[in-house]
Specification:
Layout: H1 2-12, E1 17-18, E2 25-28, E3 35-37, E4 49-50, E5 56-63, E6 66-72, E7 77-81, E8 84-89, E9 93-102, E10 108-116, E11 125-132, E12 138-139, E13 147-153, H2 183-190, E14 193-199, H3 217-220, E15 223-225, E16 228-232, E17 242-246, H4 249-254, H5 264-284, E18 289-294, H6 298-313, E19 319-323, E20 331-332, E21 336-337, H7 339-355, E22 371-373, E23 379-381, E24 385-392, E25 396-401, E26 412-413, E27 421-427, E28 433-442, E29 452-458, E30 462-465, E31 478-481, E32 484-485, E33 492-493, E34 499-508, E35 516-524, E36 526-531, E37 534-539, E38 559-566, E39 578-587, E40 596-603, E41 608-610, E42 615-619, E43 628-631, E44 647-648, E45 659-666, E46 670-677, E47 683-692, E48 695-702, E49 709-717, E50 720-728
Parallel strand pairs: 13-14, 13-17, 17-18, 18-19, 23-29, 32-33
Antiparallel strand pairs: 1-9, 2-11, 3-5, 4-11, 5-10, 5-12, 6-9, 6-11, 7-8, 7-10, 15-16, 20-21, 22-24, 24-27, 25-26, 25-28, 28-29, 30-43, 31-42, 32-40, 34-39, 34-42, 35-38, 35-40, 36-37, 36-39, 40-41, 44-45, 45-48, 46-47, 46-49, 49-50
Helix pairs in contact: 2-7, 5-6
Length: 730
């Protein structure tokens, strides 16, 4: 059976007619009688594009032949006519080209299903329409199945090279990849279900097979296109009954599992991300069920089974588990399942799905939401405003009251709520004690059975400072000459830690006479640099988001990084006339504790303010330095301290055209930088880089002249940077 199919495939790979076809009626791609399934990008309705594997379209047509117009010289497609595989079609011309698919049919009504067999290489491909016999047209399309399954995974899910004939990796895997004979579509066909294939070779839940944490499948789950975040995928347009997750083999490789035991740290990373991803799927698809699938690796089977047990123990009865063994002789293409193994895997999935009660009926979750993160109470507030922030384990609305009562009776709703993170900014009076009672209600109407009680007292005579602040007391820190090393080689020896913190003050006597500075940072493996409490550089670290003690450098790397401060790039304003402070946190890669560090600061006339090898204060305690409480000095509004309540609000409107308003709250007066970047990290605009008074401030982003798409905006105050996303529609 398999041999016959491969012979059939090889014959039809040679059957291809390029150029204009004899049929002459072009049916544009936006014709409503064409059904599209999968993540298609309809930014240009007349030329929808795709990059995820397994996307397909269906249509009913009249006549004796059918062709296609497309911009694609890479992909392979299965052409089904009236349910029969008629051709493996491979477009091979650059630019938009018309191709013949099938000719010589009986003159009548026929059904087309065109399925992309393989993964995209690095870009998207465009479908431009169908070509019919002269005078023929499309008929109302065939009804799509009601059931829907989404398969999320890696190269196994993508059926990479499943029609190869040897264990060796072929020079080009695309021609021997047939996703229709992968376990996902096989399973969907058994249940007469539509399917989406959200899968990509080489990537995992936490890291890819090389050990990189960047761009893995949960990071791409909200993308319409595999290789770009623009445009975001609209989850509401296609809600599956079941999501099948097959992620872990690349994580296992990246963790070094094939050469040594996976560390407890990596196991915790994997489990935490898996739980988080299940939550993301729940939030995107109300009522969905999740099937977590473990491949033949014992560590993955044990770990994924534990994850499902933990979900079930938490009252989440919508998550299920299955696995499959290693099939002797059933692998090709450098260890990937062949067609026969894909059918065996599908049999395992089918058996588990058939055992799930009411699997095609939306799951009714009766589990009330849990408030999982909240302030430790009682606590003290040192300002005239406080941001109460909590998190829930599911999408919820959060309310509060100064007396304990039911959710419906509570008078106030958190100003930022409706998802998992919730916050509200509240005024405070000095020497007053506040009591708030908080409850949540999820999208299914389930309510927390008891209130969370938060109590705090206000003392505005003091200020909270972090390790980057001038007021922070460093007397308990160690000090020594750099280069600092945990290997015993450097001048000063550190404890072996994942992250170390350094700070040093220096004086600039006549700032107005200078036109620039150069900061040099040396060491390994990754750095975050702050000048006067404000972040000015990240090197070999995640590009966006909060960095904590446990955040690892992206890769092992010896660095020699220069940062230039000039009026042209806006960084010169970060320096002050008089005393300045440089603060650096140095991160190792995961499990690496051999940290080294050295730095110097020079101005444009080569005056050294900090020399290589000079003494620094440093902390190597195995955790981020704790915040401190200091007496509030005169003019604290001008201080860079008290940033704990700094908050960026969601831009409004969003989506927008052509302008939107960016607003934030800053707990003290000071310099604020507002910038906009595109998805490649290129700076589009600096909306502001100046002084703002304490309180809520706002700035308008006018995108007239910019292309439609997703943009990232950031607001930085006193070393704390918050980011958001806005979608420009045109």
């Amino acid at each position: 059976m398999k041999t016959a199919f491969l012979i059939f495939s090889s014959i039809f790979l040679t059957i291809l007619t390029t150029g204009f076809v004899s049929a002459s009626t072009l049916i544009p791609a936006d014709n409503p009688n064409i059904h599209y399934v999968g993540r298609w990008d309809f930014t240009m309705p007349s030329a929808p594009s795709h990059s995820w594997p397994g996307v397909y379209l269906t249509a009913n047509f009249e006549g004796t032949s059918i062709g296609v117009s497309m911009t694609d010289n890479y992909c392979y497609y299965n052409v089904f006519i009236d349910g029969v595989l008629m051709k493996i079609f491979h477009p091979d011309q650059a630019g938009k080209t018309d191709y013949n698919l099938v000719s010589g049919l009986t003159d009548g009504n026929h059904t087309l299903m065109l399925i992309k067999r393989n993964e995209a290489s690095w870009t998207k491909y465009t479908f431009n329409g169908l070509i019919l016999d002269d005078g023929k047209t499309l008929l109302p399309p065939p009804e799509l199945p009601v059931r829907k399954i989404e398969f999320v995974g890696d190269s196994f899910t993508s059926a990479s090279g499943n029609e190869a004939t040897t264990q060796d990796a072929p020079s080009d895997v695309a021609p021997v990849t047939n996703i229709t004979e992968g376990f996902g579509p096989i399973t969907a066909k058994h249940f007469d279900a539509q399917y989406h294939m959200t899968s990509q070779s080489g990537f995992g839940m936490v890291m890819d097979y090389t050990g990189s944490y960047v761009g893995n499948i949960p990071d791409k789950f909200d993308q319409t296109q595999m290789f770009t975040a623009n445009p975001p995928w609209d989850f509401e347009q296609w809600i599956p009954n079941l999501v099948v997750i097959g992620l872990g083999l690349n994580d296992y490789s990246g963790f070094g599992g094939y050469s040594h035991a996976v560390s407890d740290i990596h196991k915790a990373e994997y489990k935490n991300k898996y739980h988080e991803f299940i939550g993301t799927i729940r939030d995107a698809y109300p009522g969905v069920r999740v099937l977590a699938v473990a491949p033949h690796v014992l560590w993955l089977q044990q770990t994924i089974a534990e994850i499902v047990e933990e979900e079930n123990a938490a009252g989440r009865a919508d998550v299920f588990y299955t696995d499959y063994p290693y099939y002797d002789g059933g692998y090709v293409n450098n260890g990937h399942p062949n067609v026969a193994s894909h059918h065996k895997i599908a049999d395992r999935l089918i058996a588990e799905i058939e055992s799930i009660p009411d699997v095609w009926t939306p799951f009714s979750d009766l589990t009330p939401p849990t408030i999982t993160k909240y302030p430790d109470a009682p606590f003290t507030v040192y300002d005239h405003q406080v941001t109460l922030a909590v998190q829930t384990d599911s999408y919820s609305t959060v309310k509060y009251s100064n007396t304990d009562k039911s959710f419906k009776e509570m008078e106030h709703t958190f100003s930022v709520t409706g998802e998992r993170k919730h916050s509200v900014l509240l005024p405070c009076e000095h020497a007053t004690t506040y009591n708030w009672y908080i409850r949540a209600s999820d999208v299914n109407g389930n309510e927390t059975p008891a209130s969370l009680h938060i109590q705090y007292t206000v003392d505005t005579t003091k200020v909270v400072v972090n390790w980057k602040d001038f007021l922070f007391g460093e007397s308990a820190w160690k000090s020594g000459a750099t280069p600092i090393s945990s290997t015993g080689v450097g001048t000063t020896v550190m404890n072996p830690v994942q992250t170390a913190y350094f700070r040093k003050k220096f004086t600039v006597e006549n700032l107005a006479s200078l036109i620039g500075f150069r900061l040099l940072v040396k060491g390994n493996d990754g750095f975050v640099v702050y000048l006067n409490g404000e972040e000015v550089n990240r090197t070999n670290m995640i590009a966006e988001g909060e960095i904590t003690y446990s955040t690892s450098a992206l890769k092992t790397q010896v660095l020699n990084t220069s940062v230039v401060f000039s009026a042209a790039n806006g960084l010169l304003s970060k320096f002050r006339n008089g005393e300045n402070q440089l603060s650096v946190e140095v991160h190792g890669t995961t499990g690496v504790t051999a940290i080294s560090f050295d730095s110097q600061v020079l101005d444009n006339v080569n005056k050294k303010y900090i020399s290589l090898g000079s003494d620094w204060f440093f902390s190597d305690s195995g955790s981020e330095p704790a915040i401190q409480l200091a007496e509030k000095p005169t003019g604290i509004e001008e201080s860079t301290g008290a940033v704990l309540d700094f908050r960026l609000f969601p831009a409004y409107p969003n989506p927008f055209n052509p302008s939107t308003e960016i607003s934030w709250f800053q707990p003290a007066s000071g310099n604020v930088s507002v910038k906009v970047h595109d998805l490649l990290g290129r700076e589009i605009a600096t909306l502001s880089d100046g002084f703002y008074q304490k309180g809520v401030n706002k700035m308008t982003f006018n995108a007239a002249g910019l292309s439609a798409g997703l943009y990232i905006y950031s607001v930085t105050f006193s070393g704390r940077k918050e980011t958001g996303k806005v979608l420009l529609l045109k």
